[in-house]
């Protein structure tokens, strides 16, 4: 690690929590990580938005650690429990090249907000080594604009969450009362620096749209909180419509957390602020009416489903169902079927 990059990890101020941990001394910050880049899984993912998966799937890399640590996180094994192992720049490049060779439409970087300075260098090295497909930044949006600047001109596709505009809900679910203001600033920056560029890609005489540059803003509807989603869509209509793609998700699913009683009790307390259940038919109908009322220029909305089999288990070599993903690399084995 260069001296310049190392400075970001000493008395760490990378994320809005500004915990000032010296992550260079094998100590961890709120994110749970030192200055290492750690990965749990890399796979071809077919469950993202159609603009991202297109024909070949999204070359998804799941990083260990997180700056937000949502109470309902489906990826909690890697975002909160430290699952994964350290990779250097060479191994990271090899993973990206393998995903590209397997047909990935992009390199989808999931939850890397806590390692931006180091990861920015890894991405440039991978590009020099022959990675030509776009980089996609898949994020909670709890990150500073100053850190995002380090990814400018390297990342071209942005996949941010806008989880809630309620400070009260953010405090209860993320222990981050400032999340709404931080996330809005991050999303506005992404839109400003990345105008939409959507092309048509033909494969086997089948044409599909593909995003090469721009922003897809995700919002997950939280059961029982229709008003918060209405507020979020109102903000998106004013600030993002016509400049970014909107992805409204109805897939909220209670996670069967496997933790000790102390951590489960803390999680239950946080989750008591929402209705921890699947979205019901009435809510789905109300959301569809809301979408129609706003008439967004470009919006995705999921069909309602009570299928919970898609929930990942990252202890498995194949964390998802076979239809959702093709595993390429796992933290316990390295490359699969090399």
Set down the secondary structure blueprint.
Layout: H1 3-9, E1 38-45, H2 50-53, E2 58-63, H3 76-79, E3 85-86, H4 89-101, E4 107-110, H5 116-128, E5 135-139, H6 145-148, E6 157-160, H7 167-174, H8 179-193, E7 197-203, E8 206-220, H9 226-239, E9 245-249, H10 261-271, H11 281-294, E10 299-301, E11 325-330, E12 334-335
Any overview of this molecule?
- The chain has helices at about 5-10, 50-55, 75-80, 90-100, 115-130, 145-150, 165-175, 180-195, 225-240, 260-270, 280-295, and strands at about 40-45, 60-65, 85, 105-110, 135-140, 155-160, 195-205, 205-220, 245-250, 300, 325-330, 335.
- With about 350 residues, it is α/β, with parallel strands linked by helices.
- The chain has a single domain (about 35-335), classed as Aldolase class I (TIM Barrel), CATH 3.20.20.70.
- Strands 1, 2, 3, 4, 5, 6, 7, 8, 9, 10, 11 and 12 form a 12-stranded mixed beta sheet that branches.
- Strand 7 (about 195-205) and strand 8 (about 205-220) form a beta hairpin.
- Helix 9 (about 225-240) packs parallel to helix 11 (about 280-295).
- It is globular and about 50 Å long.
- The mean pLDDT is about 95.
Q: Count of helices? A: 11
Task: Count the beta strands.
Answer: 12
Shape, principal axes of CA atoms:
globular
Q: What's the helix-strand series?
A: HEHEHEHEHEHEHHEEHEHHEEE
CATH architecture term: Alpha-Beta Barrel
The total domain count is 1
Radius of gyration: 19 Å
């Amino acid at each position: 690690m260069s001296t310049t990059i190392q400075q970001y990890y000493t008395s760490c101020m990378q994320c809005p929590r500004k915990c000032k941990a010296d992550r260079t001394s094998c100590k961890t910050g709120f994110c749970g990580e030192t200055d290492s880049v750690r990965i749990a899984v890399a796979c071809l993912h077919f469950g993202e938005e159609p603009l991202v998966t297109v024909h070949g799937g999204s070359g998804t890399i799941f990083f260990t650690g997180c700056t937000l640590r949502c109470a309902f996180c489906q990826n909690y094994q890697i975002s909160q429990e430290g699952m994964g192992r350290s990779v250097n720049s060479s191994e990271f490049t090899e993973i990206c090249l393998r995903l590209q060779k397997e047909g990935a439409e992009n390199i989808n970087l999931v939850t890397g907000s806590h390692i931006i300075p180091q990861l920015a260098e890894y991405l440039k090295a991978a590009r020099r080594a022959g990675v030509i497909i776009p980089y996609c930044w898949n994020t909670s949006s709890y990150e500073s604009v100053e850190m995002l600047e380090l990814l400018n001109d390297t990342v071209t596709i942005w996949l941010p969450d806008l989880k809630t505009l309620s400070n009260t809900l953010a405090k209860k679910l993320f222990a981050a009362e400032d999340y709404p203001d931080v996330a809005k600033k991050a999303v506005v920056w992404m839109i400003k620096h990345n105008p939409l560029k959507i092309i048509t890609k033909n494969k086997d005489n089948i044409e599909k749209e593909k995003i090469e540059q721009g922003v897809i803003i995700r919002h997950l509807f939280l059961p029982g909180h229709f008003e918060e989603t209405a507020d979020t869509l109102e903000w998106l209509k004013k600030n993002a419509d016509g400049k970014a793609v909107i992805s409204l998700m109805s897939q909220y699913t209670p996670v069967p957390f496997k933790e000790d009683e102390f951590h489960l009790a803390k999680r239950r307390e946080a989750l008591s602020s929402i209705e921890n259940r699947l979205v019901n038919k009435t809510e789905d109908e109300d959301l569809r009416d809301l979408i129609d009322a706003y008439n967004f220029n470009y919006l995705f909305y999921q069909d309602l489903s009570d299928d919970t089999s898609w929930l990942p288990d990252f202890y498995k070599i194949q964390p998802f169902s076979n239809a959702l993903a093709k595993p390429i690399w796992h933290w316990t084995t390295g490359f699969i079927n090399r």
